[in-house]
């Protein structure tokens, strides 16, 4: 099992400030997280990787709504 990361650790992996990650958590749109208690929030490394992949864009006009190439088309 991979070790869970606290906000600081996850922010370091993503190269964001912990404050930015907290803001994304509050507003939505950030990576999935695990709330262990009122003050203990953790991130699974796989969820960080998924969020990074889902954030990929081809241009500034790409809103991410187009299905990825080769996905679901048969």
List the helices and strands and how they pair.
Layout: H1 7-14, H2 18-27, E1 34-35, E2 41-42, H3 45-54
Antiparallel strand pairs: 1-2
Please describe what this structure looks like.
This protein is mainly alpha-helical. The chain has a domain at 7-54. It contains three helices and two strands, in the order ααββα. It has helices at 7-14, 18-27, 45-54, and strands at 34-35, 41-42. It has a two-stranded antiparallel ribbon with strand order 1-2. A hairpin with a 5-residue loop joins β1 and β2. α1 (7-14) crosses α2 (18-27). The longest helix has 10 residues, at 18-27. It starts with 6 loop residues before the first helix and ends in a 20-residue tail after the last helix. The mean pLDDT is 89.
The shape, in one word, is globular
Helix content: 25-40%
* Radius of gyration of CA atoms, rounded to a whole number: 14 Å
**Low-pLDDT windows of residues:** none
* Topology, number of strands: 2
The ordered H/E elements are HHEEH
Mean pLDDT, all residues = 89
Major sheet summary line: 2 strands, antiparallel
Number of helices: 3
Across the major sheet, the strand order is 1-2
Structural class: mainly alpha
Strand % is: 5-15%
Q: State the separation between the terminal residues, measured CA to CA.
A: 35 Å
């Amino acid at each position: 099992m991979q070790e869970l990361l606290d906000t600081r650790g996850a922010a370091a992996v993503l190269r964001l400030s912990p404050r930015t990650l907290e803001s994304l958590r509050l507003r939505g749109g950030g990576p999935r997280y695990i709330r262990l208690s009122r003050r203990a929030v953790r991130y699974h490394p796989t969820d960080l990787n998924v969020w990074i992949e889902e954030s990929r864009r081809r241009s500034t006009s790409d809103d991410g709504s187009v299905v990825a190439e080769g996905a679901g088309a048969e």
